[in-house]
Amino acid sequence: MKITIIGTGYVGLVSGTCLAETGISVQCIDKDRDKIDKLNQGIIPIYEPGLAPMVKRNIDAGRLEFSTDIRGALRDSQAVLIAVGTPPDEDGSADLKYVMAVAEDIGRYITDYILVIIKSTVPIGTAEKVRKKIAGELAKRDVIIDFDVASNPEFLKEGDAVNDCMKPERIIVGTDSERAFRLIEKMYKPFVLNGHPVIYMDIPSAEMTKYAANAMLATKISFINDMANLCEKVGADINMVRRGIGSDSRIGNKFIYAGLGYGGSCFPKDVKAIIKTAADHGYELRVMKAVDEVNESQKESIFYKVYRHFGENIKGKKIGLWGLSFKPNTDDMREAPSLTLINLFLEHGAEISAYDPVAMDEARRRLDDSISYSEDSYGALVDADALVLVTEWNEFRNPNWTVIHKIMKNRLVFDGRNIYEREVLEQAGFVYYGIGR
Questions:
Q1: Are 2-199 and 211-225+234-297 in the same CATH fold?
Q2: What is the DSSP string of 303-339?
Q3: Comparing C-alpha atoms, which of 269, 285, 397, 395 is closest to residue 332?
């Protein structure tokens, strides 16, 4: 089986590599020549545990290729997966220009039947737009070529994407074609041997499932953060509350950790997009609007704890920042709470010394020399007035508090992820602030 994947970003690269791992011949297409050249050398543009050796293994085996030649790749392909970005537009809607450009190319270049599978996160109704765009291009060529369009949204977690792809909890497929059904069944057969299902449905429902899933997870995060803020006012501990409600099987214990809110490439964008979709159809998603508002304010919460501690004057204070990526095991800083915090600290005259195990290069690209960068976690705290924990990387979980006590100017710890125990830090001579505690 031969398939083409258009887009070598996070979704396209992981999906293509995992499909190649099962023996499928995969050609990944991207317009960025430099990126393609590096990928063919095994140089990966993203940090994702386990991905680099898998890419190299499948390149060496001849199952995985990278190219800029979409026309050549579509030749003899049984399926083409659209995995390009859908960045948020100014009004919060998903920008479909890259998806529609791919659809136009497919209509221009296909010569035989092909199944078009949309992996990109797209608004409800996009599959039909793609179908019409391809049909329009075929009409311009004055040719009749059969094709099908299916929706197959991705559910990859950054930092664990390879495992998610190889051992999916479920695979969602929207299709209205028996021929497409058979092809997708063949493509995904190796991935469901663990007993997890492929769930087939109509195309609009598949498109909606992706947004509904991310909206639900984002809701859980904003809910627990809202409860954490209330806990601080009434004297409760959100960690205890989380354990209490998480033991209820109807609620579960995932995505109910209080912190600095969600970030990354999916939740912020998808929440705004589904709010816009509802508005376009004359409906107000009141819960999701609140989820978005809580998340935006939550990113600022640690800043205001620092600000109030210093009597609302932090000019000249040195803040040691641990963690820059929006979550551990990725270098992704899109919509990261660290960016919001850094901007606030700098606006109020503070100095930032930051360290992240993986995201330093990405931080330099985004922030240039507006902050200083440390080569290790302790270096970021030398003469610091406060430690602000932003991302809960494993290497931050058990630091040497004796060393930190000696090198910091003021012994203040602001724990944005609740990974430390107040009693332990207070016994070590620190003042501790958490979230909802």
A1: yes
A2: HHHHHHHTTT--TT-EEEEE--SSSTT----TT-HHH
A3: 269
List pLDDT tens digits, range 69-91: 999 999 989 999 999 999 888 78
Which of 18, 28, 165, 266 is labelled catalytic? Answer: 266
Cα–Cα distance for residue pair 244/132, rounded to 1 Å: 51
372: helix, strand or coil: strand
Domain assignments of the chain as residue spans, ordered by start: 2-199, 211-225+234-297, 299-433
**First-last CA distance in the chain:** 55
Q: Are 364 and 331 in contact (CB under 8 A)?
A: no
DSSP code string of 117-179: EE-S---TTHHHHHHHHHHHHHHHHT----EEEEE----PPTTSHHHHHHS-S-EEEE-S-HH
Name the residue type at position 154.
E
What six digits make up the tokens of 267?
């939740």
* 8 Å CB contact between 328 and 159: yes
C-alpha span between 233 and 210 (Å, rounded)? 36
Mind giving me the DSSP string for 278-300?
Answer: HHHTT---HHHHHHHHHHHHHTT
Helix axes 51-60, 10-21, angle to 10 degrees: 50
As a whole number of angstroms, the distance between CA 291 and CA 100 comes to 30
Q: State in words which class domain 299-433 has.
A: alpha beta
CATH says 211-225+234-297 is which class?
alpha beta
CB contact set of 165 (below 8 Å; sequence gap of 6+): 14, 15, 18, 156, 191
Q: pLDDT for 17-56, tens place per residue?
A: 999 999 999 999 999 999 999 999 888 988 999 999 999 9
User: Which one, of 285, 263, 169, 152, lies nearest residue 217 by Cα?
Assistant: 263
pLDDT bracket for residue 364 (50, 70, 90): very high
CA angle 221, 286, 280 (to 5 degrees): 115
Q: How far apart are CA 292 and CA 295, in angstroms?
A: 5
| pTM, entire model | 0.92
What is the rounded distance in angstroms from the CA atom of residue 386 to the CA atom of residue 307? 11
13 near 6, Cβ under 8 Å? no
CATH class of residue range 2-199? alpha beta
Q: Is 231 a catalytic residue?
A: no
Question: Which residue matches tokens 């004297």?
Answer: 235
